[in-house]
Amino acid sequence: MIEGKRIVLTGGAGFIGTTLTRLLADRNTMVVFDSLRRNAIGVTGLLGHPNVSFIQGDVLDRDAVTAAVRGANICVHLAAIAGIDTVIKSPTTTMRVNVVGTFNVLDALTETLDSVERFVDFSTSEVFGSYAFRSEERHVTSLQPVGEGRWTYAVSKIAGEHMAHAYHDEFGLPTVSIRPFNIYGPGQVGEGAIHVFVKRAIAGDEVLIHGEGDQIRSWCYVDDMIAGIMLCLERPEAVGEVFNIGNPRGTVTIRSLAEKIVQLAGSPSVIRHIPKDYVDVELRIPSIEKAQRLLGYQPQVDLDEGLRRTIAWYREKATGGPPAAGAQVAPGAGAPDEWKLRHAVTGEATPET
Ligand SMILES: NC(=O)c1ccc[n+]([C@@H]2O[C@H](COP(=O)([O-])OP(=O)(O)OC[C@H]3O[C@@H](n4cnc5c(N)ncnc54)[C@H](O)[C@@H]3O)[C@@H](O)[C@H]2O)c1
Predict the structure, then answer these.
(1) Considering only CA atoms, which residue is closest to atom 43 of ligand 1?
(2) Which of 48, 137, 186, 269 is deepest in the core (most CB within 10 A)?
(3) Which residue from 251, 253, 255, 252 is spatially nearest to 274, judged by alpha carbons?
(4) Which atom of ligand 1 is nearest to the CA of 37?
(5) Which residue puts its alpha carbon closest to atom 18 of ligand 1?
(6) Which residue, by CA, sits nearest to atom 20 of ligand 1?
(7) Strands 175-180 and 118-122
(8) Ligand 1 in contact with 189 (CB < 6 A)?
């Protein structure tokens, strides 16, 4: 376990950053740097932790970044524009934050090279393009056609990976890049199919699927993501490398995922298919062989168990109380309208990223 370190998390108020802060705060000095474009940390009480300080700042503000990372032993760079809906609406902001922001963080770290023991860059599995079957880190990444909005994100993230490697080679910065494959779990904010489906299932709303629902994804529970990050921070073998972090055993079609969530939530929600009007990733399954071999990474939480924990968390958040009794019984407990009154939360539709 890492202890006694000064750890700076850019984007630390987001889903993964908040989960990581919770794990590390008792034994380290945490600096959470975030613009609060999204905010998963606010409701957790972590900002009141004596070892956690919060800086509201933008990674595009080089001076603010320089001040935040000064003296850091570890920097985990999570700040990004993410989520395909958001990326398509704001392509220039995506490019600026993900490319210039990453450059600012890397460049600022060169002014504190004596203290830095590890820099972790967050890339994405989107770098493998539309069809990614058992994708390995050494496989060619895909740039996809200019003009198809979603790929702006992948291009910005692959630029970040190249930058991280450049700073490793040229300045000796101990960098690691992580490509997460569809992370889900308690505390998620923003977009993501599980986040949206669970919210709608708990509310008793229709669960909307874009297209036939035959898109295939491997879902990785957030604790397994955090275990992967910890290995990247602790293991010397990680330096200078890129790793897929995901769970190939959590592989399902989007239709099966929606059915599973409705059933596990004991929800009366109806699953409805709507037209798909965006470019999608049809198949995405990682190879995690490199992380297994070099780091000893092995995901532990299977999809059903992860979904049960996630549903329980959203239900507690929605009702302000513990999970409802009988939460995992078969659907159909009461008509949708009555059910909604008892489990009132809202959910918005989004592409199945
Ligand atoms: N969750 C996933 O499945 C997944 C998959 C692939 C890649 N990733 C990458 O992992 C990282 C963390 O993901 P997450 O799910 O926690 O995302 P998230 O959106 O919950 O967190 C990102 C955080 O970055 C902050 N941020 C955005 N722009 C900023 C700016 N200009 N300056 C400072 N902070 C800014 C946001 O406020 C947010 O709190 C991101 O880089 C994301 O692209 C996540």
Answers:
(1) 82
(2) 269
(3) 255
(4) 37
(5) 14
(6) 14
(7) parallel
(8) yes
Which numbered atom of ligand 1 lies nearest the CA of 39? Answer: 39
Domain 6-186+221-247, CATH: 3.40.50.720
Kindly report the pTM of this predicted structure. Answer: 0.93
Which one, of 194, 336, 306, 310, lies nearest residue 258 by Cα?
A: 194
CA separation (Å) from 320 to 23, 212, 224, 311, 342?
A: 24, 35, 27, 14, 12
Among 3.90.25.10, 3.40.50.2020, 3.40.50.720, 3.40.47.40, name the CATH number for the domain at 193-216+249-283+301-342: 3.90.25.10
Q: Which of 173-177, 258-262, 322-326 has the lowest mean pLDDT?
A: 322-326
Interval 247-300: pLDDT, tens: 999 999 999 999 999 999 999 999 999 999 889 999 999 999 999 999 999 999
Give all strands (DSSP E) within the chain, no chain letters: 6-10, 29-34, 52-56, 74-77, 118-122, 131-135, 175-180, 183-184, 207-210, 216-218, 220-221, 241-245, 251-253, 271-274, 283-286
Determine contact, residues 8/51, Cβ cutoff 8 Å: no
Q: Is the CB of 158 under 6 A from ligand 1?
A: no
Averaged pLDDT, 162-186: 98
Q: Where are the domains of the chain?
A: 6-186+221-247, 193-216+249-283+301-342
Atom number, ligand 1, closest to the C-alpha of residue 60: 31
